[in-house]
Structures are given as C-alpha cells and as structure tokens.
Amino acid sequence: MTTAADVAMYAVACVLLVEGRFLLSLTVWAVAVAVFFLDALPVLLPGRRSLADRVAGTAVTGFGLRHGAAVPAPAPGAAPAP
Questions:
Q1: CA–CA separation, 2 vs 33, rounded Å?
Q2: Residue 13 in contact with residue 33, Cβ under 8 Å?
Q3: How buried is residue 50: exposed, middle or buried, by Cβ count under 10 Å (0-12/13-18/19+)?
C-alpha cells in the first residue's frame, strides 16, 4: 500500500512538472521521498519490519530459499499437502 502511495505521489509530481508547476512538483516529490524513507528506515531497527508491516501487524519471516536443500518431488498421484 505504501508503495502505491509513493508511486502515485511521484506520478502527481511528474504531471505537475509537465504542467509547469515546478515548485509544487518539487514539494510533492520531496514529500514522496520523505514517505518512502519513513516507511523503509524502520527496517534497519532490530524488528526489521517496515512501517507498513507494523501497521498491518505482519512480518517477513524469510525467503524460503536454502542453499543445498532439495525439495522432494511429490509422489505420482499423491494429494497435495494441506
């Protein structure tokens, strides 16, 4: 959600720039950059959760990739695991 808000603000800044409203465009762009950093910087804290994760109550627990770990193929005709 925060990425969509950032992209929307960047788009508004671009439209304002094309329309010749340079100062307003620069202001909107600066706000978009500030929002991006406010969302991203908490990732550097010990909990490693972005502002969006904290608001939503979610967290990334891992990528699920492991070096050298093989994923066993399901047996033919076997039902998928729940």
A1: 12
A2: no
A3: buried
Residues 6+ apart with CB under 8 A from 58: 49
Q: Which pTM does this prediction carry?
A: 0.55
Among the listed residues 18, 41, 40, 17, the one whose alpha carbon sits nearest the alpha carbon of residue 29: 17
* 46 contacts 38 by C-beta, under 8 angstroms: no
Integer Cα distance of 17 and 33 in angstroms: 16
Cβ of 68: how many Cβ atoms within 10 Å?
4
Summarize pLDDT for 13-56 with one digit per residue, the tens: 999 999 999 999 999 999 988 888 877 777 777 777 777 777 77
